[in-house]
């Protein structure tokens, strides 16, 4: 095997492929990145039995071949190289890498021990890459980090025709984002559960193309796993789907909210951040909505205290409630509108936060954030 490739092209491809490498691989072989040189292109692959990554980039290939080398070491080397062409050649059990006056020799890992990568699932449709990235970011904040509740560490993807709904919850909050896509079959009706950390990483890294193709496979053959696949701009990745019945969380959103309040999102976000500085761990930020304003308070007793009042429009009776400050900050941070609307049914019942483009309307309903209040003494 022998090829020449641009330094930046190699560095970006290796870094993207190596990102899927396990921190503590079950076997040493899984720490490798597989490089295949063929037909004036390089294909780099990694796999940990759960997630696979595959990147294809152009190169000048003099001799076809395949090799397996330490992925993290190659990523570190390629990032540190001077901005010149990289020449790589396999000689026996060593890989010689030359770039300008820099020269490295890498040990070869046993290629025959490396597992076969799963086939990319059949493409079911495509979605705008920026829309996907934003949607995953908005929903994944609500996924649980508690591995003792594995189902809740995932993001549920529901596909009905041209509509996709993403859902995630950690029992204390629930995020839902709706978006449209271009399915290959408008009668499609599928659901999938993907680990939030994997989906977040995929969405962030799939921005090289305008569209992201999404594939799904529910294999029935023995030993096969159900997979979801994403591909864009020469990059392809797959992940096994999580097993289990996700709780029916959609019904948690109230059909009607008798009390509503509208605030400027950035102003409220900054106020919550300031007031929450005195909120000790597991304590709340209290919000009291009245005509024309909302008063934020945190801290109590002999401890540090803070309060701040900002403008708010109230529709209905005055209401006071309290939230986990970080959960509130998370929801406000990922909303992408200038204004947010809170819908309440009762001070001790979950509140719904949605975005709207104007102070007096223009409600945007594709992102909804349900937040469980924290009881507090009066």
Write a short abstract of this structure:
The chain has 378 residues and is of the alpha+beta class.
Write the layout of secondary structure elements.
Blueprint: E1 2-6, H1 7-18, E2 32-38, E3 41-47, E4 51-58, E5 60-63, E6 65-70, H2 71-80, E7 85-91, E8 94-99, E9 102-107, E10 123-128, H3 129-140, E11 154-160, E12 163-169, E13 173-180, E14 182-183, E15 189-195, H4 196-205, E16 211-217, E17 227-232, E18 235-240, E19 259-264, H5 265-275, E20 285-290, E21 293-298, E22 306-311, E23 313-315, E24 319-323, H6 325-334, E25 339-344, E26 351-358, E27 361-371
Antiparallel strand pairs: 1-5, 1-7, 2-3, 2-6, 3-4, 4-18, 7-8, 8-9, 10-14, 10-16, 11-12, 11-15, 12-13, 13-27, 16-17, 17-18, 19-23, 19-25, 20-21, 20-24, 21-22, 25-26, 26-27
Helix pairs in contact: 1-2, 3-4, 5-6
């Amino acid at each position: 095997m022998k090829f020449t490739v641009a330094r930046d092209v190699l560095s970006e491809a290796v870094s993207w492929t190596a990102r899927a490498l396990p921190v503590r691989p079950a076997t040493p072989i899984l720490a490798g990145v597989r490089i295949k040189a063929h037909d004036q292109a390089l294909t780099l692959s990694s796999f940990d039995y759960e997630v696979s990554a595959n990147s294809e980039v152009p190169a000048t290939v003099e001799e076809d071949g395949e090799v397996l080398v330490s992925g993290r070491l190659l990523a570190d080397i390629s990032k540190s190289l001077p901005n010149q062409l990289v020449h790589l050649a396999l000689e026996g059990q060593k890989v010689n890498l030359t770039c300008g006056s820099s020269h490295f020799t890498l040990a070869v890992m046993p290629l025959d021990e490396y597992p076969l990568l799963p086939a990319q699932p059949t493409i079911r449709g495509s979605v705008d890459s920026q829309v996907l990235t934003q949607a995953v970011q908005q929903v994944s904040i609500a996924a649980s980090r508690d591995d003792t509740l594995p189902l809740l560490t995932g993001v549920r993807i529901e596909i009905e025709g041209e509509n996709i709904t993403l859902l995630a919850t950690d029992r204390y909050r629930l995020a839902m984002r709706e978006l449209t896509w271009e399915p290959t079959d408008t009668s499609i009706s599928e659901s999938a559960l993907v680990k939030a950390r994997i989906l977040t990483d995929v969405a962030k890294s799939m921005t090289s193309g305008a569209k992201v193709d999404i594939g799904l496979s529910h294999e029935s053959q023995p030993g096969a796993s159900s997979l979801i696949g994403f591909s864009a701009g020469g990059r392809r990745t797959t992940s096994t789907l999580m097993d289990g019945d996700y709780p029916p969380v959609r019904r948690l959103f109230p059909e009607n909210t008798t009390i509503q309040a509208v605030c400027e999102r950035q102003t409220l976000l900054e106020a919550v951040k300031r007031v929450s500085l005195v909120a000790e761990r597991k304590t709340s930020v209290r919000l009291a909505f009245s005509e024309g304003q909302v008063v934020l308070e945190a801290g109590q007793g002999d401890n540090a205290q803070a309060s701040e009042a900002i403008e708010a429009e109230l529709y209905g009776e005055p209401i006071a409630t309290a939230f986990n400050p970080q959960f509130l900050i998370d929801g406000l941070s990922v909303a992408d509108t200038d204004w947010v609307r809170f819908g309440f049914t009762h001070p001790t019942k979950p509140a719904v936060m949605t975005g709207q483009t104007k102070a007096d309307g223009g409600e945007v309903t594709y992102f909804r954030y349900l937040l469980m209040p924290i009881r507090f003494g009066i």
